[in-house]
Design goal:
The structure holds two protein chains of two kinds. Chain A has 15 helices and three strands. Chain A is mostly helical. Chain B is globular. The chains are: A mainly alpha, B alpha/beta.
Chain lengths: ~475, ~260
């Protein structure tokens, strides 16, 4: 380490220095020199953010795509994703309890590994969330079209992107003007979704196991071999980005030492189990080939298969809510990511301005919403998902490295309430798994991802070369 | 000395009337400046932008309170949840009461509501301390369906207060809607003192009773906290050290 916590310094090209003040963290508030920041999110709020972000993409958009690529073994791909997510969620939990601040992964890495890594991760996190949100919105578009179809309005696939854009713009405006009680709504949506899925999985599971309904000829588990399992795991990893969103609100969580690890690890476990079961049930209903022909909304047909029109409607409705809640949670995380970076003088301070009328960070929300709409317009589901995974996986890998670096010569301020079990094996495996998963992506996604990282490193070199953040709490 | 918490939406220009400042003269005062943010804004982000402005406003207010009487300090909180913040700070400062500011001139007569399941003795000792030998009159108010029992309670409380040299009147509203009767009685008084009550279904639907009284009567309302429930040195042990006001809180009771 560079020494005690006062090592932050330097200025960016506009002469702004990182705003870092000594704070005291208690269970209920963060206390700075002159002010206190209330912690208002409980465990259920944290779980709702984690599960709410994750449950949309994975369950409602991927089954058809994943089954087409890997067959019934897509369930294994989801399981691999869950294991990788868990290997990162544990180190992330330790770091979050040591540094319960806004910004999540960016914060840990900039403090643990220094400004360059921090800048690349922080800015990439912004883009990663933008790509993820665009992906959620396109998924939303498919479900919106299906909803209209279920209601007897067959509008065709041409409306998917326009509807997604419309909702993307709507979210941004809604977030700028202030969404009163959105958190409570989010909790309700997550509870509703979980109940829909549990009912559906219970029935589908019994059927798939041959206890009710007609028996089906079993399909070969991995008809396409093991390589597709890994490439599919890389694709569907987007489904597990939600736990990192919990870390971005770490500064607002009550009893962070207890609630952060529980929310992060808990949401990965809940969602992972649901994903694996869902894929199993879905591939049992149709066989992977037919499932893949249904595309992004294959789950609707699975619902129809088991429970008729009611099942189809429940899934369409669930998919609509889920993709919406993922998109909304990600927009909120994006603006927090931008705030964290701009506070450290890696972006102009102007980016974290709050608007007087609504009290919302309108500049940051605009910096999220604008690019999201551009990317949504491309409609490239797989590319969007993979680039989002790529950028997050880089961050996840570096989170593990940051943990190793911090633990090696524990600085004085480093006092986490939660310590990773199985250190150093877990973070080492987490880092290796995260970086390795990137290797199984399509070349196009890897190129876009690397391009973004080079661009962010270039921005750092131009804008904030003199800023030092390492070890600055 | 009992501490009174005065929560203010500091950045929305909420301020304290001179009448209330003077009334709270004998008490220790903590001015709690808070700013409620929508959930998409991290509290720290607001602090970066507004801290200086809020601190300046708070320092002025605390100075006004100090000029009017006893010690006054201030705290500034950025939050998503006003209730949680007021509760936490009230507990940390061991405040015996909190104030809902309202418009009032010089306070000549207080309306003290004893309606419902409240700690009458603690309210009375708070009022004694508040009046503190000044010529402020007190009207004890009680709305109840049990006329005889109500009269008895009012007389006992009235005797206790007048025994400490306070000009006391009593007012009993039997078989009337309690809230409306209180608001009506408030018209010829300058401020209201009432006890904190446990949250009920009614308060969930219509908002906290004290807030509704404040809105209905326009004047300031002082709410004597229900300390038994939220008290607890043990619960506070891992928080901030409570400020100097804990020592001589009025003795608790269980009436």
């Amino acid at each position: 380490m560079d020494g005690p916590s006062s090592s932050a310094g330097g200025t960016n090209v506009e002469g702004e220095a990182p705003q870092i003040e000594p704070t005291i963290e208690t269970d209920d508030a963060t206390i700075t020199d002159d002010a206190e920041l209330e912690r208002t999110l409980g465990l259920s709020g944290g779980l709702a953010i984690g599960i709410g972000t994750m449950i949309g993409a994975g369950i409602f958009v991927f089954p058809g795509l994943a089954a087409g690529r890997a067959g019934p073994a897509a369930a294994a791909s989801f399981a691999i994703g869950a294991v990788v997510a868990l290997l990162v969620a544990l180190p992330a939990s330790e770091l979050a309890t040591a540094m319960p601040k806004s910004g999540g992964g960016y914060y840990f890495i900039s403090r643990g590994l220094g400004t360059l890594a921090g800048a690349v991760v922080g800015l990439s996190l912004w883009f990663g969330l933008v790509f993820a949100t665009a992906f959620y919105l396109v998924g939303f578009g498919y479900y919106a079209v299906d909803t209209l179809a279920e209601l007897g309005l067959a509008v065709g696939g041409g409306l998917v992107i326009p509807l997604a854009l419309l909702f993307g713009a709507g979210f941004t405006v809604l977030n700028v003007t202030g969404t009163e009680n959105a958190a409570k709504l989010q909790n309700g949506i997550v509870a509703l979704l979980l109940s829909i899925l549990v009912c559906f999985l219970a029935y589908g599971g019994l059927d798939a196991a041959g206890l009710v309904g007609e028996p089906m000829a079993p399909e070969q588990f991995a008809p396409l071999g093991t390589m597709p399992i890994l490439t599919t795991a890389a694709l569907v990893f987007t489904s597990y980005l939600g736990f990192a969103q919990v870390a971005t609100v770490a500064g607002e969580m009550k009893e962070p030492g207890r609630n952060l690890p529980l929310a992060m690890v808990g949401s990965v476990l809940v969602v992972g189990v649901l994903y694996v079961l869902t894929i199993f049930v879905a591939t049992s209903a149709f066989g992977s080939e037919q499932l893949s022909r249904f595309g992004e909304t294959a789950m609707v047909e699975v619902g129809r298969h088991y429970l008729g029109a009611v099942g189809a409607f429940a899934i369409v409705f669930g998919g609509l809510l889920a993709t919406m809640s993922s998109a909304n949670a990600s927009v909120l995380s994006t603006s927090r990511a931008i705030y964290a970076v701009s506070k450290d003088a890696l972006l102009p301070r102007q980016a974290s301005r709050i608007n007087l009328r609504y009290g919302t960070p309108h500049v940051a929300l605009g910096m999220a919403g604008g690019p999201i709409l551009v990317l949504t317009a491309t409609g490239r589901v797989e590319l969007l998902a993979e680039v989002a995974s790529f950028l997050h996986l880089i961050m996840y890998g570096l989170i593990c490295v940051a943990l190793l670096a911090l633990r090696r010569d524990e600085p004085e301020w480093y006092d986490p309430d939660f310590r990773v079990p199985g250190y150093p094996v877990v973070p080492v495996l987490g880092a290796i798994a995260s970086f390795a998963l990137i290797g199984f992506m399509q070349l196009a996604s890897q190129l876009v991802g690397v391009g973004i990282m080079i661009a962010t490193a270039g921005w750092y070199a131009y804008y904030a070369r003199d800023v030092t953040l390492k070890g600055a709490l | 000395m009992t501490r009174v918490l005065v929560p203010l939406a500091i950045l929305e220009g909420e301020s304290v009337s001179t009448g209330l400042t003077a009334l709270l003269g004998p008490m220790d005062v903590t001015v709690l400046g808070y700013h409620v943010l929508p959930e998409q804004t991290p509290p720290d982000q607001a602090r970066m932008q507004y801290e200086d402005r809020a601190t300046a406003a708070l320092t002025d207010l605390a100075t006004e309170f100090r000029t009017a009487g006893e010690g006054a300090d201030h705290r500034l909180v950025f939050t998503h949840d006003r209730e949680q913040t007021v509760d936490r700070v009230a507990e940390e400062t061991a405040a015996g009461a909190y104030a809902i500011t309202g418009a009032t001139g010089p306070v000549d007569r207080l309306l003290v509501a004893l309606t419902g399941d409240v700690a009458v003795e603690r309210i009375c000792s708070f009022v004694t301390e508040l009046v503190g030998g000044r010529g402020i009159g007190v009207t004890l108010f009680l709305a109840t369906d049990d006329e005889a029992g109500g009269r008895e309670l009012l007389e006992a409380a009235g005797a206790a207060l007048s025994g400490r040299g306070i000009d006391v009147r009593t007012e009993l509203a039997a078989n009337e809607p309690p809230f409306e009767a209180l608001i009506e009685a408030a018209t010829d008084h300058d401020a209201i003192v009432m006890g904190e009550r446990a949250p009920s279904l009614r308060s969930l639907v219509f908002g906290e009773e004290a807030e509704r009284v404040a809105a209905g009567s326009v004047g300031p309302v002082l709410v004597v906290r229900n300390v038994e429930e939220s008290d607890g040195a043990e619960a506070n042990a891992d928080r901030l050290p409570p400020s100097n006001a804990t020592a001589d809180r009025p003795a608790t009771d269980d009436s």
